[in-house]
């Protein structure tokens, strides 16, 4: 009950000591009624060159009707920030899971709260993590089960027959990768309103679009998109408690020659793929790496996982062995003790229909000498 009433964390910020907390659930102040909500201008347009460029910068691509629907919820175009209140009980910097939950729960408990969204509301979970990855895994599971049924010779009571009733032997299950990705974008767009600005407004959370910068122990300047720090038009927010929930970014190894200049893929742009890569190399063997390795192997890619030690090295060793054996059975190749010396970019894509081509120079336990490994997706 004490944790429910008040959960507090002290954070040092540029010499200041800021307390972040959920507002006391026994506060008697009424729920914030927003007298000056943010406004929404014209929405995203797939035919607008500026919108297309910004969508790419936000790692949301292609800008089709599904991604337009997503962006209209989580990154309003031409958004007008609301007039700030005199003081907020809580401000959340960041609009991912941490920022959304903190600001909304404070508002639901009677506090005056706001959230500052620099990029995409919903953060990694909605846009480049949980939601899109599980959508791909669901398709991968369906593909594996369909292939299993086709090869089972009625083991499960499933018979594949032609329209004339004749049994079908040697059925090959095809994969429409474009449809797999469209389904993912559709599901993501359907879920987006849960994390969108309008939903926050409905529970009493004011949303500011821009970059939050601490200007004192109790004030934050919201640097609006296209403006500089110190611009008189930027809103200034006064607060009692602050939550820093700015999330993180993928880490790219800095000791591999040529890697930073290569057209590599991370979770931020993996879900933008429109062509299935023939060969995929995955650096690392953590949970997310193995999820996507398994999915793309089911889609038809030749997937190689490079692991410094064993897969899921921080987990149980016996479980690691079982998972590796399962994925190898599904077509994933593992190279352990892997050390990548260099990545060479052989070809960069010149159009949306092309994929890059890269070559890795590496050594591993399975090969005695250094060798080359080519791939269209790294």
What would you say this structure looks like, in words?
The chain contains 11 helices and 14 strands. The protein is an alpha/beta fold and 378 residues long. The strands form 4 sheets. Strands 5-4-3-8-7-6 form a 6-stranded mixed beta sheet. Strands 9-10-11 form a 3-stranded parallel beta sheet, with helices on one face. The protein has a 3-stranded antiparallel beta sheet with strand order 12-13-14, with no helix packed on it. Helix 3 (65-74) packs parallel to helix 7 and helix 6 (130-151) packs across helix 7. The longest helix has 22 residues, at 130-151.
Radius of gyration: 25 Å
- Beta-strand content: 15-25%
- How do the SSEs run, as a string of H and E? HEEHHEHEHHHHEEEEHEHEHEEEE
* Apparent shape: globular
Largest sheet, in brief, is:
6 strands, mixed
Mean model confidence by pLDDT: 88
Task: Please state how the strands of the largest beta sheet are arranged side by side.
Answer: 5-4-3-8-7-6
Counting helices, strands and paired strands, the structural category is alpha/beta
| CA distance, first residue to last residue | 48 Å
The amount of helix comes to 25-40%
Low-confidence stretches are 1-36
Number of strands: 14
Chain oligomer state: single chain
Number of helices: 11
